[in-house]
Each structure stands twice: as C-alpha cells, then as structure tokens.
Amino acid sequence: MTDTAPAAPHRDGAASDSPVRDAFVLGGNRIPFARSGGAYAGVSAQDLLTAALDGLVARFGLQDERLGVVAGGAVLKRAADLNLTRESALGTPLSPRTPAIDLSKACATGLETVVHASNAIRLGQIDSAIACGVDSASDAPIEVSDRLRRILHRVSAAKTPAQRLRALAAIRPADLAPQPPRNAEARTGLSMGEHQALTAARWGITRQAQEELALASHRSLAAAYDSGLLDDLVSGYRGLARDENLRPDSTPEKLASLKPVFGVRSPEVAEPTMTAATSTPLSDGASAVLLGSREWAQERGLAPLARLVDARSAAVDFVHGEEGLLMAPAYAVPELLDANGLTLADLDLVEIHEAFAATVLATLAAWESEEFGRERLGRDGAFGTVDRSRLNIAGSSLAAGHPFAATGGRIVATLAKLLHARAVETGRTQRGLVSICAAGGQGTVALLESDGKA
Amino acid sequence: MSTPRSTSAARGTASRGGASRGAADPYGRLVRTAPGRAVTTRLGLPQPPRLPRRADREAPVLDPVVVLGATAGADQVAETLLGWDADVRRRAEDLDAIGSVVVVLDELSAPGDLSEPSLALASTLRRLRPGGRIVTISRPATGGDQDGATEAARGAVEGLVRSLGHEVRRGATANGILAADGVPLDAPGVVGALRFLLSARSAFIDGQLLTVASVDGALPEDWERPLADRTALVTGAARGIGAAIARTLAADGARVVLLDVPAAGTDLARLANELRAVPLQLDVTAPDAGERLVAFCREQGLVLDIVVHNAGITRDKLLANMTGDRWDPVMAVNLSSQIAIDDALLAAGQDVGGDGGGDGGADSDGGGVLGSAPRFVSLASTSGIAGNRGQTNYAASKAGVITFMPALARRLEGVGGTANAVAPGFIETEMTARIPALRREVARRVNSLQQGGRPEDVAEAVAFLASPPAGGVRGETLRVCGQNLVGR
C-alpha cells in the first residue's frame, strides 16, 4: 500500500548527472470499440474509461498502487467532465492519491498522453504512469445555441423578476434547437472527410487502392483476434468481445458496391473515391497503456515491452489550402527519423492511423514523391518507401473503429507487444513508428523500440 | 466534482457479492410475509423455508448436537465435536430443541441393527430446530466383500437418509458420510465432511451420501481459512457460479487465478480487482489453451494447488433438431477442454518443492505448475445424472465429467491429489433466469427444500472438496440440488 507512504513520491534511478533515462511501455488494455449508437449507447465516457483502466489495474495487479500520473483525455467532452481522467481513475482500485491530468489534441490525444507521461518518466519526475484516452460519439455532449446561452446568462444575472422575464422573453423558437458537435473544421466549414477527399484527389489515390487497404485492415485485425494476440490487450465489455466495426468476411465486391460519401459535390474532386468502408465510423471506446521506468518494472516483475524512444509533432496550413488537413504526419515523421538517424527502411513495423484509407495512402505517396521531398521537406529527393508488409500488420482504425482519443493507446500497446515478440523471436532490436493525424491540421508521431530483453 | 453520475464512479464492489441474494424468487419472498404465508398455507402451496448460509450461522455446529450410537466410532465423533466447542449430548430425552443429530452406524452387521438407532433418531425429529442437520456416518456397501447381511444393512442406510431428506422441514437437511472400511471416524476426510455437512455451508445439500475412501488429507490449521497459502485456478470465473466460487475460495484464504474468455474480460478484471486475484483471458477450447496456461503460470510464478473446471455453456435443442454448432461447442467447453488442460498441467508436472512421485516429473522447458497434493474439482450437473429434455449435448458433457472424475482421481493418487465433481441442481443464476417463468417456477420447487439454490451453495461444496481434509474423497460427484426429485 503506497497509500500510507509519506507525501514525497519515491524515485528510482533519477541520476543527477544524466537527466534522461528510458521510459517503457509495459502493457495495455482496451475495451472493444463499438460503433456509435451500438453496444455502448447510453454508457458514459467516464464508464468506458473506468472499464479500460479497471482491466489494466487487474492485469498488472495495480490495486492500491500510487502511480506517478494517469494522463488521459477525450475529444468529445462535456463541460462537466473537466476532470474526466481523475474521476475515472477514482472509480478504479488505484490509490486515490494517484494524480491525473486531462489533455486534448483531437485524434492525437491518446498518443500525446503517452508522450506526456513517458517524458515525465524520462526526466525522472515520475516512475510510472498510465496513459489513456476515451471517446463516445454516442454520449457526445449536446449544447444550446450561442444566443440561448447568452440569454440564459442574462437571466441568471438579472436582479428582479421583471428583468428576468424580459430576458426570457427574448428567446425565439429557433434558439431552442440543440447543437450537437459538428464534424467540421472551424475555419473552413468542411468536414474532415471533405478535406481528405481534396487530398485524395490531389495525390490521385484510387478507390481500388483504398478498398484494398480497408480489406487488409479488416483481415489483419480479425487474424490478430484469432491468433490470441489481443487476448491480453482487449477485455470484453458489455457483451462485446471484438470491435463492433470489424467485418472479417468483407469482400472486394461488397466494398466496390458502396456509394462514395465524400467529395461528391466538390468541384475540385473529379471522381469521388471515398466510401463508408474506406472511412472510419464514429465510435465509442477507451484504451489505456501502462508506462514505467526500467527499475519500476523490475520491482514488480513486469517485462518492458518497448522503449519509447522519441516523439515529434507537426502542423500544416490547411486553412489556405497549402497542404491537406491530415498531412501533418508526412512532415513530422521525417523530422523524427532524421533526429534519430533513421530512415523508413530502418523501421520494422509502421503504424499509420487509418482516419481514412486515403490518409494513409496520401502520406505514403507524399513520402515517395521526389517533388514533395524536395519542395516540402527540403531534401534531395523522395523521403522513402514504406514496406507495405510492415504497415498496420494487426489492422488499424478502418477495422477497429476510431474512438478519437482511444486510438493512440490502442496502437501503442499493440505495437509494443508486436515489437517485443519479434525482438524475442529474431534476437534483433525492432523499431516501430506510430503516426497519427489530427483535426486542425496537426499530427503526432512516435518511435518505439524493443530489444526483447526483460 | 459533484455527485458521481455513473455506477463505476462509486468505489468498491462489495455489493456485488450479494447480488444473487434472494433476488430472483418472488414466490419465496411472498411466503415469508404474514399474509403471503396465510394464503399459501391455506391453498396447500409449497412453503420454501429460509436457508441460513455461512454468514447467517458461523458456528460449525448448530447446538445442541446429539450423537447417537454406542460404538468406539461414536465416541471418536463425540470427541471431534467437543473439540469444536459444540454442546454435545449422547441422549436426546431431556432436550427441548435439538440443533443437529449425528447417527453413527459404523458397525452394522445385519438389517436388524438399524432399528434402534432409526427409532432413536425418529424421537428427535419433532424437536429439530429450523436449519437443523442430520448426518449419518456408516460404512459403504462394497459389492460383496462383506457378508450378505452386512452389505444389506449398509445399503439400507442410503434408503433411510434419502427418505429422511424428503421428510425433514424448515430448512433442515439429512445427509450421510460413507467411511470406507479401514477409515477411522477421526480421519481427516470424515472429520472434514462432518464439519461441512453440519455447517451452514451445506445449506442446499440434502439427501446425499458422500464416500470417504481413504485416510488421506489433513486437518487445516485454521478452519476459518482452510485454503490459506493455496493457489486456486477457477475457469469461467467472470460471472455467476464461477464468480461465486472465486469469492468463496478467496474468503477461505486462497490466492485465486481467474480464467475466462477475453469477451468477459472487464467483468473478470473487476472481480480480480475485488479479490486481488490474477486474471487470465483465455479461451479454454483454444488448441493451445493448456500450453498457454502452463506458460502463464511459469511466467507469473504460480503453482496451482486447486484447479476448478467451472467453464460451461448450454446450447439447448431437442436432439431431432441438433446441429454441429450446438453439439460441438458444448462438448468442447464442458468436457474436452478440461481433459486437455489437465493433461497439460500434469505433463508440466509438480513444483520442485512437491513431494510427489508418479506424474510428478517436470518436463524439459520449465518448472512444474501443480502443488504437492493438487485438488481438481469439476462442475457436473443434475442434468448429467438424470438427463433433461432438450439437453442431450449438455447432459452428455456433464455425464462425461462425472465418469472422468474417478479416472483423473486414480491418475492423481500417486501424487496425493484428488478429483471430484459438484453437480448443481436448480441454481438462481442469469442462466436459469432465462427459463420461461412457469417452467422456472416448477423447476425451482421440485426439490426437498422447495427453492432454487444460490451460486454460493455450489461454491461452498467446491471449496470443501478443494480443502485439505477432503483428501480422502476421490472421484465422487456431490450433488448440490436441495435433493432434486430427478435422478439418484
């Protein structure tokens, strides 16, 4: 019981002459992702996150443990959930003296919580952490209109009943319409899918290529479940054993029969290519990742799966049309690999979040483009090619679904386990990349590495 | 923040332990109200009594306890009871109320010998307290090793006990212990079974006879925590009877490893958090389930002293409508998987610290994962004994479990282990809650106690068979059914 320990958090190995030490991914847990309005309809984001945390606590015997931090977040968040992560953590058997923080960076939230927590471990500020994320499109907050909100504030500020009545009298029927969150960029008014349709057209991403990627995602994820790979990464919840969106028996013919949904009315898109099958659905779900220093892991007999080597983020000017909304990782990854003296060829596994199939393909195309390499990245030529047999080998968001802030944790935990298993098998250090695009023209990428040693 | 808006925000899961408590039986609640009792008595409807459980009566013996019989064995039994601070009497005449009666019949040699003790027992029945206990201790018929009159007298005890189970009222039960020839009545198996059958832990066991075949086993240092320092694996542990077994084993002091399919993961995790147990998400029917379980145990440094095969499913259909996707999974989960897992555990061998020979040799890639006197307990079913319409597949699998037990027990004999089964009758669970209302109401009343049992009743029987004293109980199937009318 660390509950009764004195106030100062204990540290290990934070040597003063070397301020940076290693932070490791020790394991993960998530609940199966559900389609919006599906298995988790009516379940709050807090309940979903608590479920994912409960599973992680149980798997690693963290009952009563005081961790360095629980860092979490959600993209769709009610105002009342300002302490969502703290409230969720309090619902678990973790020591109530474990601090928590809520972070937010659209779809990159989950990966940012991993980066935030591992940085604190690397600096010796903390020894252990849980990075987590949750989103529920089914439980998304619905707000009142700006006009109604102002009127209601005026009512509450009114001093006399007459003033109150006068203020209330200003309400018009149209003000009463609820305002669900909009899936559109604030500065362009275009939805993410419409933005991606422009990027797909610009890079000439074919519909067939997108559908092949989607099929591979479904097949790989189904195979990951069948092989038992996810047995200690996913804990069933509310009758859901696997991701609700997963369709292992989908066929090319079935996908080819769907109508395009994005870029349909855009004059800049000659031939719309993006369908529901090549776009991630709105989803509900939560994930959590356990992080720790080597010493903290050893004390508990936990095997470090992978070291969090480094991370970068980038942003692009999508507002003025200079770059596609979801292309920031195309810039962040070269920066990350350059900083670590690596090329794409040095990566054993690559995880590129499938916001849309076209996002992944446009990113790969950009890296293979001489022009993009020279003019955008300032290199001598193309950045490089990703070996497709190393890409998203256990499936990704097109199959699993994409509860925004939960995706980072899903990818990091799965990748860490894959890297560790391959390092043990081959006896060679394995490197993996995580790349996640986000609304607002942003992206966060991270590098993981495993030597397979306990 | 203000008040928690979700159930998970409230810490602690203690309430889950009592989730099954009397929730499902509205008629049972009705007859416990004054007007309800007045009406139902007049109509001649069943009057299911309230059955005290462990928490309702913690003392092992409901006092006073009358020991009938004048043999040396009877003296041993009286000594044992005195050792538990029970109010032991050898005569019942001057008592107004009697809590328990132990009838020692270990030296019967002719049917006539049964007359005097039976009539002495008869005189106690009208004074038996609610929730009272009657336990006979006798020798089992041997199939011809003894002379005919002796065999006949021994067999007669069974008829007495089973009929008396039907006759006693107000939550009292009648059960018997059959101590094999050569097993003294202070052997651990006899003492353990006696304590269990006299206690409130056996509330839903009625009309049953349990054989103690050998002097193996040991008395626990602490009867309140008989499983201290033991590690127990429970399959199908996330919900229902499996969760109740896990809670009971943990309450008895065991460290518990909870196994269930990944689909039940979050329920499993929450139970693990409640019990500080080790969760393992694994499908027992996976081809490599045994190997993965062994690897997990080695990785976590777990040595299993107790293995409870509880994982089970139903896919009911009349045989005429049976399909492979209903037959095969039932046999795989309920029967084949446990044979495969037991093989894998035994192949991995016993922990180096163990004292066993026989199967005890560990294989090449790591240490053994079984303790020195491993206890295997499997879940059978009264359906496996009597059959049940629409359950050919389920009954076949459970009947298979029952006959698998003696075979496994023989294999374990060399290493001091045992294997036994528990056969639940109608238990109030999510599964039985789905039976159509009228059929459910009938199923729940057709036993001597006129009610369904609780998951913890099954768990108590499992915990007893897993406990150190039960080492002399080998290959048995103990029914926990309130003496259901079907089958033996």
TrEMBL record, chain A:
Per the UniProt entry, the signal peptide is: none
**In which family does this protein belong, per the annotation?**
Belongs to the thiolase-like superfamily. Thiolase family.
Domain Thiolase C-terminal span(s) in chain numbering: 303-449
GO terms, molecular function: acetyl-CoA C-acetyltransferase activity
Q: Which UniProt keywords apply?
A: Acyltransferase, Transferase
Q: Does the keyword Acyltransferase apply?
A: yes
Q: Kindly list the organism's lineage.
A: Bacteria, Bacillati, Actinomycetota, Actinomycetes, Micrococcales
Q: Does the keyword Cell cycle apply?
A: no
An annotated GO cellular component of this protein is: cytosol
Question: Which InterPro entries does the annotation name?
Answer: 3-ketoacyl-CoA_Thiolase (IPR050521), Thiolase (IPR002155), Thiolase-like (IPR016039), Thiolase_acyl_enz_int_AS (IPR020615), Thiolase_C (IPR020617), Thiolase_N (IPR020616)
**Enzyme Commission no:** 2.3.1.16, 2.3.1.9
Name of the protein in its database record: 3-ketoacyl-CoA thiolase @ Acetyl-CoA acetyltransferase
Which residues are named in the active-site annotation? C107 (acyl-thioester intermediate), H402 (proton acceptor), C437 (proton acceptor)
